[in-house]
Amino acid sequence: MSTHVSVLFWAAALSIAVVANSVSYVPEAKAAYPCSGKHVYPSQNLATVAANSREGTTFCIHDGTYNVSSAVVVQDDDRFIGLYNDSSRPSVVTTKAHYVFDANQGSDRAVIRGLKISGGVGGNYCEPACGKGIRGGRYLTVDHVRLTRNANNGIGGAGIGLVVKNSLIDHNGSRRFTSLDGGPSQAAGIKSAEGSLTVLNSRIEDNYWVGLWCDIDCNKFTVKNSTITGNGKAGIHDEISSGPAVISGNTIRRNGTLAAADRHAGLLIMSSANVDAYNNTFGANVGYGVQISEDDRPPELGKIKVHDNTMSRNRLAGCGLSGVSCYRN
User: Fold this and answer.
1) How much helix, strand and coil, in percent to the nearest 5, is found in the chain?
2) pLDDT digit string, tens, across residues 54-71
3) Other residues' Cβ atoms within 10 Å of the Cβ of residue 299
4) Per-residue confidence band for 217, with pLDDT thresholds at 50, 70 and 90
5) Which of 303, 295, 289, 236 is nearest to 271 (CA)?
6) Peptide bond preceding 34: is omega within 30 degrees of 0, i.e. cis?
7) What does the alpha-carbon distance between residue 124 and residue 116 come to, in Å, rounded to a whole number?
8) Which of the residue ranges 15-29, 73-87, 113-127, 252-266 would you say has the lowest mean pLDDT?
9) Where are the alpha helices (DSSP H) in the chain?
10) By three-state DSSP, how is residue 35 classified?
């Protein structure tokens, strides 16, 4: 090879390497520019701006920190879109409000995207309803959002049609929202009761009690292609629900880490029916990888399939119960 050709060859290789390296540093999530709607800046009170806007408003929320002392009320068809061009997100935080975003006023079809939401406060004086990053909403979509350090739930009390995707739900919940202090257990990264919940391509990490909790017949429950790790009692809890529930393609590891919890499992199925759990990877969960059990609450266990999962030496419990089928694990 001639010297000239050799120089060209190595220059081209170096160019390719630089491009490849630059791609690897592109942030995982960037809000799309431009945002067409009402532009909001950190100098403004986001809760006041939302309260003074018509339903169906798109709020273009510029990067920075928004401290709110009362909840941002979400109306029908509202869209809260974070604008940023680095690895951070606009942060909406409270040290006073029971909810950061409140969609419980009959809100339908709202979208919350590209924000960090934290700080929902509460305790025994207001449990179980308080301490939430996002409360309520029907057909609510949460996309590219981080929900962290809310006293009870990252998201709680939502109605039917909740979809969470491409998001990080971490470090939510606390002892005072569990049975450990004598009150009702509510604490979770996300808890849905009498609604429905879909979680896609998300990370559910290090929440105090449960990662994802479908409770009291939350109907359709879907968790796919997500990582559920480090949650205190269980990574995923399907309880007294008739489904259908589909749990597939997830990594479910190192859950059940809270010694004081009454049960410890990666996937906990309790008095539920119509569950299909397959193609998940378990490992290092405390107690069981999958635990299936039944008490006197309806529905009876039935049509539960746990199959084709990689267990990585995690145990399964309850496979011999009536209505349960476990195979190729």
Assistant:
1) 10, 40, 50
2) 999 999 999 999 999 999
3) 17
4) confident
5) 295
6) yes
7) 26
8) 15-29
9) 3-24, 46-51
10) coil
Write out the two tokens for 17.
């390497």
What integer pLDDT is reported at residue 67 of this predicted model? 98
Query: Residues 165-200: pLDDT tens digits?
Result: 999 999 999 999 999 988 889 999 999 998 999 999
Look up residue 97 and give its two tokens: 């409000």
Close Cβ partners of 209 (under 8 Å, ≥ 6 residues apart)? 173, 177, 178, 185, 187, 188, 231, 232, 233, 258, 261
The pTM of the full predicted model, rounded to 2 decimals, is 0.90
Q: Which residue has the tokens 């059940």?
A: 256
Q: Hey, how many other C-beta atoms are within 10 angstroms of the C-beta on 15?
A: 10
Domain ranges of the chain: 29-327
How far is the C-alpha of 97 from the C-alpha of 265, rounded, in Å? 33
How many residues are listed for the chain in this entry?
A: 329
* Residue 322 one-letter amino acid: S
Query: Chain-wide mean pLDDT for the chain?
Result: 90
| Both structure tokens of 232 | 């205190």
Q: What CATH number belongs to 29-327?
A: 2.160.20
Q: Which residue has the higher pLDDT, 30 or 286?
A: 286
